[in-house]
């Protein structure tokens, strides 16, 4: 299965996916392309080091949003993309892309959605909100992407305890470790064709092996 990864940052989730592939924990998957809106993003570096086609595609280079989305769509289809993975992609995906890849776009969020998600809740802001809310546990969520931020049906979730005196930084480290497990697991479920989405309830079901 051809998987395209979109990200804006350092790319540790892409690194985790590549390590899962090397260890054989993730199979029948090929990272066909990596796209970032940030030319200096570490995720592009990781792609280059692994000889994965990588692209800097951003609003700044394009005359319009339509042109940006044309570029994204043509790049995704050029590599036969079957699953789009957002790993720290800080831009909202346009409706055109979500429709083209309906129920085939995954996002990883560093909290237990539906709590502590939505516009502005990214990176450290998420962990600060979790601690401020006095949560006793946090974790990571992999979900299908729809037209709203951090809103689509949940595919996988895993929790970590929030310790007394936890700082946003220490929580971020614990949650990131979970993300690095959860995202490859979710991609493997797609590769095995085990993810179905109920037409009416739009809930995700994971079929047994
Ligand atoms: C991760 O914490 C992810 O949950 C969030 O953005 C971050 C990406 O980190 N959406 P990285 O670039 O994969 O290291």
Q: What does this entry look like structurally?
A:
- It is globular, with a radius of gyration of 17 Å.
- The protein folds into two domains: 1-101, Rossmann fold (3-Layer(aba) Sandwich), CATH 3.40.50; 107-209, 3-Layer(aba) Sandwich (Rossmann fold).
- 35% of the residues lie in helices and 22% in strands.
- The strands form two sheets. Strands 3-2-1-4-5-6-7 form a seven-stranded mixed sheet, with helices on both faces. It has a two-stranded antiparallel sheet with strand order 8-9.
- The chain has six helices and nine strands; from the N terminus they run βαβαβαβαβαββαββ.
- Helix 5 (124-132) crosses helix 6.
- The protein is α/β, with parallel strands linked by helices.
- Bound molecules: 5-O-phosphono-beta-D-ribofuranosylamine.
What is the typical, i.e. mean, pLDDT?
Answer: 97
Major sheet details: 7 strands, mixed
Give the helices and strands as they follow along the chain: EHEHEHEHEHEEHEE
**CATH fold-level topology of the largest domain:** Rossmann fold
CATH class call of the largest domain: Alpha Beta
Q: How much of the polypeptide forms β-strand, as a percent range?
A: 15-25%
Share of helix, binned: 25-40%
Question: Gap between N and C termini, in Å?
Answer: 17 Å
For the secondary structure, the number of strands is: 9
Structural class estimated from helices and strands: alpha/beta
Which term fits the overall shape? globular
Under CATH, the homologous superfamily of the largest domain reads: Formyl transferase, N-terminal domain
CATH architecture of the largest domain: 3-Layer(aba) Sandwich
Number of helices in the DSSP assignment: 6
Identify every distinct bound molecule in the structure, by name, code or SMILES: 5-O-phosphono-beta-D-ribofuranosylamine
Q: Whole-number radius of gyration?
A: 17 Å
Major sheet: order of its strands? Answer: 3-2-1-4-5-6-7
